[in-house]
Amino acid sequence: MTMLKLPAALRTRNALISVLGVILIAGTTTVVAQTAPLEPIQWDKRRLDQLDRNVRRLERAVTQRNAAGQPVIIEPDAEVVALQGRVGLMDRRLSDVEATVQRVNGDLERLTFQLDEATRDNGALTTRLRDAEGRLQAIEQAAAREAELNAPIPTTSPTGDAARDLTAAARLAASDPARGDRALQAVIAAWPDTPQAQEASSRLGDLRVSAGDHAGAVSAYAAALRGWPTTPWAPATTLELANALNATDRKTQACTALTEFGRRYAEAATPVVRTRAAEARTRIGCPAATPVRRPG
Question: How far is CA 42 from the centre of its chain?
Fold first, then answer.
């Protein structure tokens, strides 16, 4: 048991009320442990007045005992002390939990920032990977195309018909000149000594002129005009042969081709082709052509 002498501050009414509350709690705890629970007190004006009178009497009694040198002995209740200890322990644990939560929040903020950085890095890497895949695919396609264009020219017909092969090759040449060039060569190789092979050579010469290969165009046009065919495309092909010969510094041969044009194809040629032939003769500087008689 601890002997405590009340300080002067407890001589006030509020201090005494606090002391009385502690004593009442201690006493009530013991009584409640031994008896059944009491009905809750209805604090009306009468009861409050009675409590106030009791507090005043207790105040006078405490004052008198202190004046007489007989300090009030307050014995703390063991359950209250234990409860206070548990409350203190809970406070410490709560403080630890708060510190842990703060630390976890800090870690979460750092992890969130790192996750954002990782997401941005991942997006950048994904973009670079897609770009690399696109470039690699383009390289593979270019390599496959290069291998196709450099492969030996096939000598077999893909359709089994010369006319269909020529139609397919001409259509391909309109959309992809490089592959069309090979397709026309394949027609020539698969169907030699046929009208389709000669027309394929004429079309091949046009592709070579478009590519700036005038020497190759001369060879193709010459193969197309072998035997001087009387086909609708022959007059224009003869004119293009003359232009290709002139582009390769073979003026004499170019003039010879224009002479053959006038002798063999001028009458059957369209007015546009005849006009172009006259312009080519003037441009190249060939001798004047012999006038061509037209059917009456």
Answer: 74
pTM: 0.55
**Phi-psi region at 227: left, alpha or beta (left = phi > 0; alpha = psi -120 to 50):** left
* Residue 85, pLDDT score: 81
The string of pLDDT tens digits covering residues 219-253 is: 999 999 999 999 999 999 999 999 999 999 999 99
